[in-house]
Amino acid sequence: MIRLLLIQGANMEWLGRRQPELYGTITAAELDAMLLTEAEARGIALDTRYTNLEGEAISWIYAAAREEIDGILINPAGFLYAGYALRDCLRGVTVPIIEIHVTNIERRGMHSVTAEAALGYIAGLGLNSYFVALDAMLRHLIQCTGTRKSVSAGPGPDTDGG
Is the dihedral of CA 53, 135, 43, 116 positive or negative? Predict the structure, then answer.
């Protein structure tokens, strides 16, 4: 079974409540349930964690690398502005990483300092960004590393996230 870690950075625990005009009304718990359903349907063990502390995210990434997790999905959220320690951590591990953003941060005049350390970067598709990232990670693992641990790479459900 493929094992993935999803790290939700600063402020993501407040999804659905904080700026719904940007991020939609689906809550963090609802998104977690949708992602878990999608992951389980594909034979993936998905561990989702939320943190408002950059150091905690770094510790989880190093632990995941030691445990030889198959891939990491990360929405650095509030860490994207100045998460240089997080970026250095991401650079230092060999686990494939895909960065996710709900909104198009470039359109909003933001730049992610962590994105250059990731395999890829998906933004601006609302909560569908998570499902695209999940699919992209699976395809990467299947195509590039030969991992075929009973997975199904297919489209995810539609969401209304902004």
Answer: negative
